[in-house]
Structures are given as structure tokens and as C-alpha cells.
Amino acid sequence: MYRYWKKRFKTTLEQDEELEAIKKELKKLVKKKFGGSLAIRMVDSGSCNACEAECNALSNPYYNLEELGIHFVASPRHADVMFLSGVMTFNMYHHAIDCYNQIPSPKWVIAIGDCVKDLGVFEKTYAIKGNSIEVTHYIPNCPPSPKDIIAGFLEFAREV
Amino acid sequence: MRLIARFAQELQNGIEIVDVYDKETQKSLLSFDNLKIGTLTKKYPSAIWMERKISDEFGVEFIDSFDTRPLLKHEHFPSDIYPLRKNFNATEINFSEYKPYDYEAIGGDGVFQVAVGPIHAGIIEPGHFQFSQAGEEILHLEIRHFYKYRAIEKMCEGKEPMAIKKIVERISGNESVAYQVAFVDILAQASGIELPTSIKQKYATLLEVERIIHHLTDIGFIANDVGFAPALALGGKLSEEARRVFAKITGHRFGFGAIKEELTIDFGSLIEFLNYLEKELEFFRDWIYDIPSVWDRFDTTGKLSVRKAIKYGVVGVGARASGVKVDARDNDFYKNFGYQMQLGKKGEVSDRFKLRFNEIFNSIEMIKNFETYDNEGFEFGEFKDGEYSAFTESSIGELFMYLKIKNGLVDRFFVRDPSFINWQAFHTTIYKDIIADFPLINKSFDLSYAGSDL
Ligand code: SF4
């Protein structure tokens, strides 16, 4: 069975030199600055879900973020970094801040997508508060592609 | 009759309640000094959220309704404002004092509550699930949403119809093309034009590609939820490849902005990819259909009975997997291009899983028939005042959209996402299961939070 699968899954992945270079540097930085392991807690504060879909895509075989020592974790208490997406709705406001407060220091916030920064294409309504959590690094675009996110992550890792 | 939506809009002389059924639409006008109307919830349980939403937004009271708790107005939301009324124009409100929400809960010896959310363990949208448990067994589940409530409807009011397109295409990222197709359909009606057939074929093509991507992602994730990770790797790989092809033909990985007046699709490379995908998928299916430990978990889990599916008016994948024939594509246009309704039998996780495979195969076949090199475009004329509505079959299910134009501007915009209905039937599927099955059942429906919350 194992041999059958191995043969069958010898599928080819299109190589992206640029991405590989980014990942190589990022892996080094994660090792140097974060002891080889960095945990992310994803919080959606009112997105359209495309930003989440791209973050999910980070673990598909094309991007394979986990091999760099970067993991998405289930609890803020296990996290070093918060990924924040969405417009920060009135109804999510307290929950998002609560989550941020549960992350032990030192901690950093990376904003995923245009919504967090300036609501993107959306406009202020009574149901939208807008983000007030201090953001360490913005990754723009609507949504940022997985490659944008990894590249943005590298910029963040260089800065901190 | 199947209830599709119940929503309200403010007119000069009162609040109008609009009831949309599959066979007809009924309207009732309530005068401002007596905002009361009978409930539909006894006959149509999925009217519960619809009515609670209208109460929150307009202050209408539903006589004899058994659930009058707030829906959109969460713990800190001021209860004395009715934001969808025309005299409400604030874009900023203050948090009011915390008012606890009265969850549906079962009491008794040894029965305990498990509160899940709004922020979840994985990379998922926020929503709350309140379980009443007797050990591992689920006694009751209340789903509470609208954490992502952005007031999209209000945001669109007072703008020129074209100006809200960029908002409409970002209501629910996974269904963007479906939202755009419905919206363009409405605009075409409003300017009194008929879309050229070749354009319709191209729109339908993009809609099917969107469906393929969504189904591929789900196939991987559903299997992952029973601990079968290799399927996630393969599903993730295939959906990424499909998304890249989608980005090539639309200029965007989610097809934002793809549905335009003029559109060329490189069918050659699309079909080349689909031929490859078909082979990969045949392998995927033969492989996973043969792994008993996966089906041990899929079979008999999360059963949505035909009776409940009909009673709640469930749509889309959820309905068809239970054998209920609802699909907005069930018409001559689609049938001419090879559409065949895929149906499951029992409404279990396994049915929904298989249905996704079958639908992808059918979508591939249709796209091959949609191939066209006709470059006919069209132009919107002036948008005439009036009320317009449209249906599309998104990757989740039937999407209903409504737009009222007054003095050339949007007076009311409303959408009923398929998820809005299906979420309400969800709790009926878990009573024979244990709490550990919940993520699996949830994923097998894969409903949208953003589209439902608006
Ligand atoms: S930035 Fe764009 S893709 Fe991301 S949540 Fe906002 S609208 Fe969606």
C-alpha cells in the first residue's frame, strides 16, 4: 500500500524559485529570532472569508508553511503572533480584544488584507467599529495571495 | 410552497413585509403606528431568523412567535435603535451595557453546556455553537451567528447601483461569482436588456469553476476531519491548481470583478486543465472510496432527513444530498449544456461528500459545452426605478438577491444567502451523533458565515 501511494503521489508541483528563496530566508529568521518555532492565532473580525481561505491555502503542498516552523494554533495562549483579518465588526470587537489579551507577551499582530487597515471597499456603518488593536505589520491586498502573505511575513520577520 | 425569504422595507406609509416563496411573492403593509404581523414560524421554522432579523432592524413585532430574542443585536448592541429604518443614519454607535443572551439550554442531572466560539480553533469564520451535552451525546445545539454582521444592506443604500458592485462581490468570498452573476442579472433587468447567450455561457462557466474550487477544498477538509490527512494534501493541491487557473482566466484568485460587460475566457487552457483534473479526481475518488475507516466515520453521521430538509426549506448541497430536488440551475438553459441534477439518498456526511465529487464531474462536462469564442458584449442602459430580484446557484446553494431602485439610487438591497436557511436546519442533523462529530458535520455542509451574517 505504502509503495502504491508513494508512486501515485509522486505528483509534480510547479516550482517557484522566488517563493523558495523567500521561504529559505524566512526559515532562517524563524530559527534565529523565534527559536525555530512560531505560532499564529488567526482571528477573523468580520472578513468576507477570502482572507481566511488564503491563510488555509498556506498549508497546501504548494506553500507548506509548516515546514518553516510556522504553525497555526488553536488557542491564543499558545500563540506568538495574531493574524487579524476583517473590518472589526461591532459584534466581534470585544471578542477580538479578549483574544489579543490572552496572547502572552511578547506578541505581534499582523493584519491580513485591506479590510483591517481602512475597511477596503467597505464603508463605515453602525455595525462596523474598525480595528483598534495595534498592528505590527500590514499585509495589503484583497485578499493577499498565499505568496503575498509569506512575503509579508518575511518583511515582518526582518523588522522585529 | 417553499419559503425563500421574508424581509422588510420601509415605504412612505409604513413598513412592507415581503414574503418570497418559490411559487409567489406576498406583500403586507404595516402602518407605522401598528408594526405587527402574524408569524410564519409555525409553518416554516426557517422564518425564525428572518423574523428576528426584521424585529431587530425595523422594530416589527411578530404575533405568536415563540422566539423573540434579538438576533443581530448582541450583548453590547443598543436595543432601542432600528437601524434599517430610513430615519436612522448614524454610522457610529456606542456600546451599551452588557445584556446576557438567553441561550437555549437543556437542564437536568449531569447535563452540561459546551460553549464553542465565536472564535474557533482552526482558521474559520466566527460564530457560536452552544451544546447541551449528556456525556458525549448531544442533547441540543443552538447556533448563534451574526458576529460578522457588517450591515451590508444599509451600506448599499443611497448609492448608485453600479457603485455597490464592489461591495456585493465581497459579501462572501467563496461565493463571489454567484453574487456577481445575481447582481448583473438584476442590473440587466433594471436597464431592460437581455444578456447575450454567449455571455451567459461565460458567466455560467465561471460559476462552475467557482463551484469546482469550493468542492475540491471541501473534499480535502472533510476527509481531514476524520483524520485522513493525505486527502487534505491532495484536495489542497488540486484546489490550489484550480484557483491558479481561475486567477489566469479572471485576473483574480477569487474572481472578484470577473463578471463584466465584456469577457473573454481562454477556454483552451481551461479545458486542458479540466481534462487533467478529471483524471486526478477519478484517482482520488477510487482511492478514497476504498478506505473503510473513512466511511466508518462518514456513514450514518450528520443525517439531514428528507422531512426536515423540506420543512426547513433547505437548499443547495445540503438539500440535494438528502434527495431533495432544489437547484437554481434546474432549467432549460443549463440542461441544454448538459446539466444533470446530482442527488444523494440519505443526507449523511457520506452523501454530501460523494455529491461534491459528482457535481464536479458534471460541472466539468458543462464547462466543455459552454465553450464559446463569441465576443459579444453588452452595455447597461439607464437603470429604471423598480424592484428586481434574481436567483443563482452558488457553490453552497440557492442565492436570492433583491434590489429596489428609487430615483436612480439603491433604496433597498437584500440577499438571502443559502447558508442563512441551511444553518437553521443544521441542529436537526446532530442528535444521533457525539460532539466529536460536530466539526465533521459542519465541514460537510461548509456553510458561509459572512454571507449569512451580511
Ligand atoms: S481584504 Fe478583501 S478578501 Fe480580505 S476579507 Fe476584506 S474583502 Fe475579503
Short summary:
The complex is a heterodimer of chains A (160) and B (454). Chain A has 160 residues and is α/β, with parallel strands linked by helices.
Q: How would you describe what is shown here?
A:
The complex is a heterodimer of chains A (160) and B (454). Chain A has helices at 2-8, 17-34, 50-57, 93-102, 114-118, 146-159; strands spanning 38-44, 70-72, 81-85, 108-112, 137-139. Chain A has 160 residues and is of the alpha/beta class. Chain A has one domain: Rossmann fold, CATH 3.40.50.12280. In chain A, strands 2-1-3-4-5 form a five-stranded parallel β-sheet, with helices on both faces. In chain B, a hairpin with a 2-residue loop joins strand 7 (128-134) and strand 8 (137-144). In chain B, the strands form four sheets. Chain B has a three-stranded antiparallel β-sheet, with helices on one face. A three-stranded antiparallel β-sheet of chain B has the order 6-7-8. Chain B has a three-stranded antiparallel β-sheet with strand order 9-10-11. Classes of the chains: A alpha/beta (160), B alpha+beta (454).
